[in-house]
Design goal:
The protein is of the alpha/beta class. The chain has a single domain, classed as Rossmann fold. The chain contains four helices and nine strands. The strands form two sheets. A six-stranded mixed β-sheet has the order 4-3-2-5-6-7, with helices on both faces. A three-stranded antiparallel β-sheet has the order 1-9-8. The two termini are 16 Å apart. It binds 1-O-pyrophosphono-5-O-phosphono-alpha-D-ribofuranose (PRP) and magnesium ion. 1-O-pyrophosphono-5-O-phosphono-alpha-D-ribofuranose binds next to strand 5 and helix 3. Keywords: Cytoplasm, Glycosyltransferase, Magnesium, Metal-binding, Nucleotide-binding, Purine salvage, Transferase.
Length: 179
C-alpha cells in the first residue's frame, strides 16, 4: 500500500494539530448552540470522529452517504444519495463535515438540499480543499489544508475504495490509476 504513494503531503501529527485548531474555533462560534453535525460518508468518517472529540459545545451527529467518484479519479458529475439523514434539519444549525472539496459538486448539491429542508444555518468544515479544481463556486466556512491539483488518498480518502486507512494524506502514484 505504501509503495503506491508518491509523496506524503501532511503527516498524522500535522493533521491532528490542525483538527484541534478547527475544533477550538468551531466551539467558540457555536457557543450556546446545539448544532447537528453531519458526516458525509464515506470519505469524512475518520475526520468526523477526530473532529467531534475536539468540539466542546453540545451537539448531535448524523450521517449521510453520497458518491460521485466511484472507481474513478474524476467526478461523474452526478451526486448519488446512498443514505439519507435520520434527523430532520428544520430549524437546526447544521455543520457539514467533509474530507475534501474538489469540484465542489457534492457540497453544492448537499447545501441546496439542506437549505430546502429549512435548516436555520448551514456551514461547512472541510479538512482538505483543492480550490483550483472548482467547477462551481463554493467557499468552506472552515478549512484545514489547501492541496495542489493531484489525486490524493489516505485519512478517509480512497481510490477505488482502497487507502482510506492510511493515517496521513498523500499523492497517489499515477501508474496506479492510469494502468
Ligand atoms: O468536490 P467534489 O468534486 O464533489 O469531490 C468531493 C467529494 O468526493 C469524495 O467523495 P466520493 O464521491 O469519492 O465518495 P466517498 O466519500 O464514498 O469516497 C469526497 O469524499 C467528497 O465527498
Ligand atoms: Mg471516493
Amino acid at each position: 500500500m505504501l509503495n503506491d504513494i508518491k509523496e506524503i503531503l501532511y503527516s498524522e501529527e500535522e493533521i491532528q494539530s490542525k483538527i484541534e485548531e478547527l475544533g477550538k474555533q468551531i466551539s467558540v462560534d457555536y457557543e450556546g448552540k446545539n448544532p447537528l453535525v453531519i458526516c458525509v460518508l464515506k470519505g469524512a468518517f475518520i475526520f468526523m470522529g477526530d473532529l467531534v472529540k475536539r468540539i466542546s459545545v453540545p451537539l448531535e451527529t448524523d450521517f449521510m452517504a453520497v458518491s460521485s467518484y466511484g472507481q474513478s479519479t474524476k467526478s461523474s458529475g452526478v451526486v448519488k444519495i446512498i443514505k439519507d439523514l435520520d434527523a430532520t434539519v428544520e430549524n437546526r444549525d447544521v455543520l457539514i463535515v467533509e474530507d475534501i472539496i474538489d469540484s465542489g459538486l457534492t457540497l453544492s448539491y448537499l447545501i441546496d438540499i439542506l437549505k430546502r429542508r429549512n435548516a436555520t444555518s448551514v456551514k461547512i468544515v472541510t479538512l482538505f480543499d483543492k480550490p483550483v479544481r472548482r467547477t462551481v463556486e463554493l467557499v468552506p466556512d472552515y478549512s484545514g489544508f489547501e492541496l495542489p491539483d493531484s489525486f490524493v488518498v489516505g485519512y478517509g480518502l480512497d481510490y477505488a475504495e482502497q487507502y482510506r486507512n492510511l493515517p496521513f494524506i498523500g499523492v497517489l502514484k499515477e501508474e496506479v490509476y492510469s494502468s
